[in-house]
Write a structure and sequence with these properties.
Length: about 210
């Protein structure tokens, strides 16, 4: 009995390792296929979509699911990525611009820019899970990501802990980066986001029943 459980555990572990490694290779390959600049966003979106399918137990071949999302969301993913990059560039420019001033004005603007940066980080943590889970316009994804981030602060803290844990794990074991890279964080990020999405759906259902 114990041997059987151990064997099942080893097989499950090997299955996850294979899944992460293959997904990471697909992410690298399709990022390069898009010339890196235009391939990074749709490849990352496809990675999150595969993570979502895997957690929802949707039976779909890894390559087929990845390639389908990569092709279908190529333009939209790049549009969202360039918009986010533009927002980040404006924030970075403004942050350094206001550092030229002194006194109370500098203190006020520095505080505002730090708060804006924190809001930007919250949006980045949720934007990809929202992108692959909902069907919206580009602005809708940004709005939804911010709403979820502010309404679920505990989940946000868990996401930050997961991100930092993944970062330090790969710092200590850099040899695993070529095998897993971003895929571990993507799965943790998607799993925590799905918990929020489920809570939102349950709340909507309760409100519908009550009304």
């Amino acid at each position: 009995m114990q041997v059987g459980r151990l064997l099942n555990g080893v097989m499950a572990f090997c299955k996850w390792v294979t899944h992460f490694a293959m997904l990471h290779l697909l992410w690298i390959g399709c990022t390069v296929l898009g010339g890196v600049v235009f391939g990074l966003a749709p490849s990352t979106a496809a990675m999150y979509a595969v993570a979502r399918k895997h957690m929802l137990t949707e039976d779909a071949p890894l390559f087929q699911a990845f390639w389908s999302v990569y092709r279908q969301e190529f333009l939209r993913a790049n549009g969202l990525a360039w918009l986010l990059a533009g927002i980040g560039a404006v924030w970075y420019f403004d942050l350094h611009f206001f550092r030229q001033f002194e006194g109370w004005f500098y203190s006020l603007m520095n505080y505002m820019m730090i708060m804006t940066g924190l809001i930007y980080m919250i949006m980045l943590l949720y934007i990809l899970p929202v992108f692959v889970h909902y069907d919206m316009k580009i602005r809708g994804y940004i709005k939804q990501a911010l709403i979820i981030g502010f309404l679920h602060p505990a989940n946000l803290v868990l996401m930050l802990v997961a991100g930092l844990s993944s970062y330090y794990f790969f710092i200590y074991f850099p040899g695993l980066i070529p095998l897993f890279g971003l895929t571990v964080f993507a799965h943790l990020n998607m799993w925590l986001s799905l918990k929020c999405f489920d809570q939102i759906e349950e709340t909507k259902l309760s409100e519908t029943i009550a009304s």
